[in-house]
Amino acid sequence: MKVDILLGLQWGDEGKGKVVDVLTPRYDVVARFQGGPNAGHTLEFEGQKYVLRSIPSGIFQGDKVNIIGNGVVLDPALFKAEAEALEASGHNLKERLHISKKAHLILPTHRILDAAYEAAKGDAKVGTTGKGIGPTYTDKVSRNGVRVGDILHDFDKKYAAAKARHEQILKGLNYEYDLTELEKAWLEGIDYLKQFKFVDSEHEINGLLSDGKSVLCEGAQGTMLDVDFGSYPFVTSSNTICAGACTGLGIAPNKIGEVYGIFKAYCTRVGAGPFPTELFDKTGDQICTLGHEFGSVTGRKRRCGWIDLVALKYAIMVDGVTKLIMMKSDVLDTFETIKACVAYKVNGEEIDYFPFDIEGVEPVYVELPGWQTDMTKMQSEDEFPEEFNAYLSFLEEQLGVPVKIVSVGPDRGQTIERYTEE
Ligand code: GDP
Ligand code: IMO
Ligand code: MG
Question: Which partner from 21, 46, 103, 417 sits 20 to 30 angstroms from 120, CA to CA?
Fold first, then answer.
């Protein structure tokens, strides 16, 4: 068997959690491969809303095994809060949630370093989620990290050494902080973690594939936030692209099956950094209001704009997307016309490829008629309005990949599969 991968093609928050939940019944296992509690994946069903941060979005469907892979960075305190809330609402995790021994731990001092580095950057700050993501991945790459598996071996010594090193850096930055509460909750989290099954996830996943089991990998963030290919330096610190699933789970490239690329019918971004199609007018406010575009975890207002096909094409290329999923089409239900960016203008010259730097590029738009129809109760593609089908055909023609799923609302049920021939 091969693994399928679902990942965001924009700047995150595309609706990954919702679709992973919808697709989970078709798989035996769901696995996260990168990122950490900077993610906020929202699921809605049976009138309930859940926001997951470190736990994979396959956790609500039956008894499916969910794996937190080696590429993930885990904060034990936040994990404990998330897992306890799920257990309290009747979801048993202990047997079904496996955690890679090789996943790196976010230390309390990583969170403080995240804040200190942001403060030091002043106006150039990234606008991180403040969860210690950058400093944790930095320690991983510089070979100073502490891993989940270390909890069982010489943990106190390893933690003390890392903490002392961080304190030294913070002293150099003249950054004032109080570790007491953070550290207390974190150490409780470490104890709590011990109840879970620590695994060698690369062995587990490859073993499952050999046994004919199917695996869905759940991306976090989005391709435009990838540390190599995103809008650097306004990115996260992991490889969010398809290849991240190989390194973040120990899956060989030839084991990859379908790659689901997910995008909003428009575009959003949280935090700082260039965003060519950003709208600063009434239309932008309208998208924000209708789409409830506020961060799932931080509550931060998301910046809103039109769909950017130059960036999407680039994302499809680096991810090797085989199937597209369009989310939040209902948010555009009332618009008379809809714009799509098909090229950038750079120094007066039009380009249709994603350049080294997108700062200051001007979007070139095509304007299409809106469908002006409430799509939120639709159940099948046969009900799609003509203008909506035209919008889909335009996107497919531009992007060269079929749109196989359309989402028309936040609920699990508001998901329409398209059976059009490829
Ligand atoms: P993720 O990080 O990619 O999982 O996405 P988030 O959960 O951060 O943000 C997506 C938001 O849009 C959540 O509040 C979802 O409940 C909501 N959502 C998902 N799909 C749709 C949709 O088709 N229509 C509408 N209106 N909301 C949606
Ligand atoms: P999901 O998985 C949207 C953004 C932050 C910031 C940058 C770096 O829910 O789509 P970090 O804390 O990772 O160092 O922040 O990345 N960011 C996200 N934006 N959705 C996310 O996750 C994000 N995770 C990080 O806002 O600009
Ligand atoms: Mg999110």
Answer: 103
Closest CA to 358 of 285, 308, 317, 288: 308
Q: Is 54 in the pocket of ligand 2 (CB under 6 A)?
A: no
N-terminal to C-terminal alpha carbon distance within the chain: 22
Instruction: Tell me if 106 CB under 6 Å of ligand 2.
Output: no
* Domain locations along the chain: 3-101+198-260, 104-194, 263-417
Q: Is 197 a catalytic residue?
A: no
Question: Catalytic: which of 4, 21, 28, 41?
Answer: 41
| Domain 104-194: top CATH class | mainly alpha
User: Which CATH number, 2.60.120.10, 1.10.357.10, 1.10.10.10, 3.90.170.10, labels domain 263-417?
Assistant: 3.90.170.10
What class has domain 3-101+198-260?
alpha beta
From the alpha carbon of 295, which atom of ligand 1 is closest?
A: 8
Q: pLDDT truncated to tens, each residue of the chain (422 aa)? A: 899 999 999 999 999 999 999 999 999 999 999 999 999 999 999 999 999 999 999 999 988 999 999 999 999 999 999 999 999 999 989 989 999 999 999 999 999 999 999 999 999 999 999 999 999 999 999 999 999 999 999 999 999 999 999 999 999 999 999 999 999 999 999 999 999 999 999 999 999 999 999 999 999 999 999 999 999 999 999 999 999 999 999 999 999 999 999 999 999 999 999 999 999 999 999 999 999 999 887 888 999 999 999 999 999 999 999 999 999 999 999 999 999 999 999 999 999 999 999 999 999 999 999 999 999 999 999 999 999 999 999 999 999 999 999 999 999 999 999 986 55
Q: Whole-model pTM?
A: 0.97
Residue whose CA is at the smallest distance from ligand 1 atom 7: 42
| Helix, strand, coil content of the chain in percent (nearest 5) | 35, 25, 40
Q: Which residues, 6 or more positions from 307, have their beta carbon under 8 angstroms from its beta carbon?
A: 263, 264, 265, 266, 267, 277, 339, 340, 341, 395
